[in-house]
Amino acid sequence: MRILLVWILNAVALWLVTLVLPGVRVDDELSALIAAIVLGLVNAVIKPVLVILTLPATVLTLGLFLLVLNGLLFWGVASLLPGFHVDGFWWGVGGALLYSILAWAFSNLLAQEGRR
Predict the structure, then answer these.
(1) Is 24 exposed, middle or buried (CB count within 10 Å of its CB: 0-12, 13-18, 19+)?
(2) At residue 116, does pLDDT exceed 70?
(3) DSSP state of 88
(4) pLDDT above 70: residue 62
(5) How far is residue 42's CA from residue 73's CA, in Å, rounded to a whole number?
(6) Is the pLDDT at 71 greater than 90, yes or no?
(7) Interatomic CA distance for residues 33 and 93, integer angstroms
(8) How many domains does the chain have?
(9) With 90 as the cut, is the pLDDT of residue 93 above it?
(10) C-alpha angle 63-46-3 in degrees, rounded to nearest 5
(11) What per-residue string of b and e applies to 65-100 under the rule 16 or more CB within 10 Å gives b?
């Protein structure tokens, strides 16, 4: 049940990103739900491997390369899914950053609710 709630909250976070950033769009609610699950899978499976492979660049840039990596993954997921659109790399970086902040905030709210 909790994973379903996290998935829906991540879709809401993605929808909020589309309201704030004009370069990030989803066609409908189903596209937002699918994009949220694909982003979650990419962040859980592919991102850790890429973080390890790009560790020298991350160390040289004092961690700023992780923003580039997040933006590329966000943009890449949008290029794979037909109902999710990101207009370019910088929109991907901004979208990934805002999506991460919103998903983190929703997760914290959910965790605090679980402690009560």
Answers:
(1) buried
(2) no
(3) S
(4) yes
(5) 8
(6) yes
(7) 20
(8) 1
(9) yes
(10) 100
(11) bbebbbbebbbebbeebebbbbeeeebbbbbbbbbb
Average pLDDT for 75-82: 96
| Chain mean position to CA 14 | 7
Reading phi first (left if > 0) and then psi (alpha if -120 to 50, else beta), residue 63 is in left
- Residue 52 CB contacts under 8 Å (≥ 6 apart), including other chains: none
pLDDT in tens, 94-108: 999 999 999 999 999
Name the residue with tokens 């160390």: 59
- Token pair of 104 as six digits: 């983190």
Give the chain's length. Answer: 116
Residue in the block written with tokens 């609610």 = 29
Side chain identity, residue 83? G
Rounded-to-integer distance, Cα 26 and Cα 95, Å: 12
Domain span including residue 70: 2-115
Residue 84 above 70 pLDDT? yes
